[in-house]
Amino acid sequence: MAHTPHTQAHGHTHDHGHGHVTDIDWAEMAPHLEAQAELFTPLYERALSWLGREVTEPGLIVDAGSGPGVISCLFAETFPGARVMAVDGSAPLLARAQQRAERLGYGDRFGTLAGELPGVLGELDYPVDLLWAGRSLHHLGDQLAGLTAFAQRLAPGGTVAIMEGGLPARFLPRDLGFGRPGLEARLDALQEEWFARMRDDLPGSRAETEDWAALLGAAGLKHTRTRSFLLDLPAPASDRARDYIAATLSRLRDFFGDAVDPDDRAVLDRLLDPQDEAGVHRRQDVFVLAAHTVHTAVKPV
């Protein structure tokens, strides 16, 4: 799945070479990023529970590309004996992560590290037992080199878990009752094109077949596993989900600008009008349905 330009729950390690993304104010984006990750928490909890059945009593967990630390704190909750290190290129987002950890009572075993992946991982004092990269790897030009660097930071028997791929989120019925059916599929196509340009523009960009199990193996890791996790928030959506859907569609409309078909832009304008009965704030058939895929592998002992 191409990661959308409007929002990335984590994975803010790079702020160069991303086209439009270069100008994003991560501190300004933080509330939206947190709202997204909080809404998706049921999905992440299932993913971490799955990891917890295989990774027992890790000493050090690294969230590589942590953003504002929502998932980092879920790791602290899931693994009460572990120290968690949130790593990101944005100091303002890491400050939010640290504040969240302290507010939730994890501050004594939670740390942050600011810098660019993967090089900043060389500043870690200890080998890593579990390294999580949630949609941050695709911001590295050479993804295989990134995975190899991740593997080098692992303790023997340690695990890399990357969240890449899955299915695009869906919020709306195919036929809205106005406009041309299939709006979200057309927005997906724009995002796929943007993602390809973003990848091409990264420093050292190298095209890779997205066979994540094969890439993890090429990085020297063994015992690859893959599993997808579903977020299913059925209609009618909660107010929190509606706010997230509206923020997401608004960012897509503004980000893609004139690339959006004029008729589709008119549909988006109506969907985003809080006074319109057919808008996402009022209609009863909006929902959130998404699937994220996690791939894991282990460093040989």
Topology:
Layout: H1 26-39, H2 41-54, E1 60-64, H3 70-78, E2 83-88, H4 91-103, E3 110-114, E4 128-134, H5 143-153, E5 154-170, H6 183-201, H7 212-218, E6 222-233, H8 239-256, H9 262-271, E7 288-298
List the main descriptive attributes of the protein structure presented here.
301 residues, alpha/beta, 7-stranded mixed sheet, globular, disordered N terminus
Brief summary:
The chain is an alpha/beta fold and 301 residues long. The chain has helices at 26-39, 41-54, 70-78, 91-103, 143-153, 183-201, 212-218, 239-256, 262-271; strands spanning 60-64, 83-88, 110-114, 128-134, 154-170, 222-233, 288-298. It has a seven-stranded mixed beta sheet, sandwiched between helices.
Report what the structure shows:
The chain has a seven-stranded mixed beta sheet with strand order 3-2-1-4-5-7-6, sandwiched between helices. It has helices at residues 26-39, 41-54, 70-78, 91-103, 143-153, 183-201, 212-218, 239-256, 262-271; strands spanning 60-64, 83-88, 110-114, 128-134, 154-170, 222-233, 288-298. The model is unreliable at 1-23 (pLDDT under 50). The chain is globular. Helices cover 38% and strands 21% of the residues. It is α/β, with parallel strands linked by helices and 301 residues long. The longest helix is centred in the middle third of the chain and has 19 residues, at 183-201.
